[in-house]
Amino acid sequence: MTKNNGIANSILDLVGETPLIKLHEITKNLRGSYFAKVEAFNPGHSSKDRIALHIINDAEKKGILKKGATIVETTSGNTGFSLAMISLVKGYKCILAVSDKTSLDKIDLLKTMGAEVHVCPANVAADDPRSYYEVAKIIHKKTKNSVYINQYFNELNIEAHYRTTGPEIWEQTAGKITHLVAASGTGGTISGTGKYLKEQNPNIKILGVDAIGSVLKKFHETGEFDSNEIKPYKIEGLGKTLIPTATDFDIIDVYEKVSDKDSAFAARELVKKEGLFCGYTSGAVIQATKQYSAMSFFNEDSFVVVIFPDHGSRYMNKIYSDSWMQEQGFLD
Ligand code: PMP
Known about the structure:
11 helices, alpha/beta, four-stranded parallel β-sheet, 36% helix, single chain, binds 4'-deoxy-4'-aminopyridoxal-5'-phosphate, six-stranded mixed β-sheet
């Protein structure tokens, strides 16, 4: 962090170096100690600040990105917010293709941050011309002087976490970490963080979190892309209906799948028991941690770090709305 007497030169200096916070009540009945890396403390309120800044800085260094250029990306919202925020500070135009699963508040946020937003259907194949992947590609081709961030297939996504999230956790735990539990979307967080941690201590277990309705767990176990696994689900940013190359499957020891309902209740429980107001995938991570615990992954000596990817404010019209929970059939 480039700080001058406690003054940041810009909001971008505040990306990363998020706190590790001990969990108490919510993990009371689980064996071991539990600590949360709370990524909501980034200025854009999610872990995606790290990759957005790393990829943009890299493109600038390589001379690919010049002032006045356009940044194009596919995003479930958070990467878009980070890119839009950085674009404002650095003077770029930002065009985002988002899935229609993205909460309305997130879309409004992106627009507030100056981005042009294209909403695309979530439940179509990745190679369908209507998918947000294809729409972003087309916009990139048509827009002169544009850069496609391509987080699902960009090595720099893994590298951002390898260079920052991994070393931070290693230092914050003084090397005591035994398990990492992390959500897998693009796979950048779990792969980059996991790679760094395993290089420090190969015995550290990297436990992935996938969504029911996504193909990642089965692909990890069998090497097979099984489209029968694909079902609509509600959790934004978790799991995939394609195999992202930003996921290093060799680094991940195991995946566990979680449901929309359990994850929503786990996120609410996190607020009530720890005062931590985090997003839907943070609920998914806590839910998976409970499931891993029930399968005896942990013992009294386990030092477990879970990553909470974003802030709860982006889900007020979803998991933190009783009427939304009722509509899903989660609440009576
Ligand atoms: N949680 C949320 C809310 C996200 O937006 C994402 C990114 N898609 C993830 C978790 C997963 O992180 P990653 O893409 O690094 O696997």
